[in-house]
Amino acid sequence: MKTAAYAAQSEDSDLGPIEIERRDVQADDVQIAIEYCGVCHSDIHTAHNDWGGTVYPVVPGHEIVGRVVKVGSNVSNFKEGQLVGVGCMVDSCQSCSACDEDLEQYCEKGAVMTYGSDDPISGGRTHGGYSNQIVVDQKFVLNVSEKLYTKAVAPLLCAGITTYSPLRQWNVKKGDKVGVVGLGGLGHMGVKLANAMGAEVVMITTSPEKGADAKRLGASEVLVSKDEDAMKAQAGSFDFILNTVPVAHDLNPYVSLLKRDATMVLVGALNPLPDLNGAGLILGRKRIAGSLIGGIAETQEMLDFCAEHDIVSDVEMIDMKDINTAYKRVMDSDVKYRFVIDMKSL
Ligand code: NAP
Ligand code: ZN
């Protein structure tokens, strides 16, 4: 089946229209007509080949919400017309120790990502959600509540789970003082989710003008990271920090904010990081860790948690043709707080 899509053709070209092929629905497949797709900073890193290894053309998009149009003969959990989601993965080996523990994102054979992976079924590369239709194995399709504002659900599929998973893994609970670094797509979901878990959330930002929004989203306080005196005043006071900064940056000032035995989890920068002062960790038994999206079971848990707590993303809707302007604005930290493409415009 051919479907319309938008692709990057090289690391320095704008995204533009393309036609791609989707496989015919197989026994375990769900065919989805995509209604909305969020724009993650990872889409931009991939289109621009920031991490190396991008194969062009690449169709980004891994925050997908749409309706089922067809299911295979083995599929009983999804029906035509049902509202569903697809996140960052579309397959995994299903037999390694990570997959056995519902941690498909750490699949030892490598999870098949929604875009830019080798496609084990159709050959070639997988293509993401900047398109009209997608065909996905039922194990990687999520159930989306009709209760939530559908347009604003899409970003939960990546920004939501990437922040929910570490907050759960590090057992963030009522009364904890949690810092969220970077008020963008991931950061604004981190603030909402940590707040819903009962934490006292401090927004740590380079953009003082975002302070009022941070408070509206659920932060009780705003800490401007460029203000050295303000940073010193909060040294040693955080139970947990979630760092969403998308580029290499100096971690030492954030480590200083942690209490003894507390952890900062990095979800943003995938590149080498500048020098880390060992004393900052050793004198206080502090920890720096990383975290990658979340497994399928946990993604469903997060979607159910959001339905229960009425949490969605704050979105700016765009037409497909406006994607290149949206990319520029994300790179300028100027998005409130996630762009979502209305796929009707494709
Ligand atoms: P985003 O919307 O661009 O938000 C990032 C925010 O970080 C910006 O709004 C800005 O917030 C802050 N920031 C930007 N440059 C900075 C700098 N040089 N120093 C300090 N702060 C800076 O990006 P996103 O979509 O949330 O994604 C964030 C990162 O997470 C990206 O690298 C993305 O690839 C990655 N990611 C990882 C996973 C995972 O599984 N680990 C999943 C999805 C995305 P302020 O203006 O508030 O400072
Ligand atoms: Zn993403």
Could you characterize what this model shows?
The chain has helices at 41-47, 97-100, 159-169, 185-196, 211-217, 228-233, 252-255, 278-282, 296-309, 323-331; strands spanning 2-8, 15-21, 29-38, 64-71, 83-86, 89-91, 112-113, 133-137, 142-143, 177-181, 200-205, 221-224, 238-243, 258-266, 287-290, 315-318, 338-342. It is of the alpha/beta class and 346 residues long. The strands form 4 sheets. Strands 3, 4, 5, 8, 9, 16 and 17 form a 7-stranded mixed sheet that branches. Strands 12-11-10-13-14-15 form a 6-stranded parallel sheet, with helices on one face. Strands 1-2 form a two-stranded antiparallel ribbon. Helix 8 (278-282) links the parallel strand 14 (258-266) and strand 15. It is globular, with a radius of gyration of 20 Å. The protein starts with a strand and ends with a strand. The mean pLDDT is 97. The structure holds NADP nicotinamide-adenine-dinucleotide phosphate (NAP) and zinc ion (ZN). The site of zinc ion has 5 residues, from loops.
Instruction: Please work out how many helical segments DSSP would assign.
Output: 10
pLDDT < 50 runs, ≥5 residues: none
Give me the oligomer status.
single chain
Mean pLDDT: 97
Order of helices and strands: EEEHEEEHEEEHEHEHEHEHEHEHEHE
Shape: globular
Distance between the termini: 17 Å
Cofactor: Zn(2+)
Protein name: NAD(P)-dependent alcohol dehydrogenase
Family: Belongs to the zinc-containing alcohol dehydrogenase family.
InterPro entries: ADH-like_C (IPR013149), ADH-like_N (IPR013154), ADH_Zn_CS (IPR002328), CAD-like (IPR047109), D-isomer_DH_CS1 (IPR029752), ER (IPR020843), GroES-like_sf (IPR011032), NAD(P)-bd_dom_sf (IPR036291)
